Amino acid sequence: MFQISDVISYLEMCSAEGVNLQRGMNYRLGKTYSVILMSVRPNAPYADRIEDNGRVLIYEGHDIPRRKDGPDPKSVDQPMKTPKGVLTQNGLFYQAARRYTERNSPAELVKVYEKIQKGIWTYNGLFWLVDTWTEQNNGRKVFKFKLEIAEEQSRQEIAENNVHLNHNRLIPASVKREVWERDEGRCVICGSPENLHFDHVIPYSKGGSSLVADNIQLLCAAHNLQKRDKIE
Asked: Domain boundary at 134, 149, 167, which?
């Protein structure tokens, strides 16, 4: 089971979810939660963003598939349904969010993974899908989805879904990239490139910031566990 800010490969991510993740939006996956893949890197294909010190994620819906002789996906509205009338992933997430805002069902639980660079991902934890809307962007309609980090009061609901909760606030992607380059993709203590984790030097719970690289370091699983055991 991943912890928030674990560094993982694409294959590890797919193995954990039991499916080859070919798309960014994955409603339910046949389970009791959904999965999204996000990125806030420069030149990322969608305008995802993190707000409120890592408590809120604004996730952009996805375009039509790129097809030979078809239109530029960035020139047409993001679809609610396929040409055959089947809900797209946009549509499935949209309806789930609307059911919650209209008080017809609990919020959808969503696991979030973030791409840091090619082949490098981090686990961002569990969020509730709490709202959705559409916006005009360069003359076309795009979907927006608001997700809020799962908090302590929801622990029982999360336990019932057999997924893990961790309270650390998200570390911005820009900070993760800076730390990854500074620490050269290795544990700062032993130099291992395996089983890495973005660690708060001063824990978030003790006032440490997630927003500056000076308070974030790379630790392997063994040294991350050793540090946890020493925190009073």
From this structure: 167
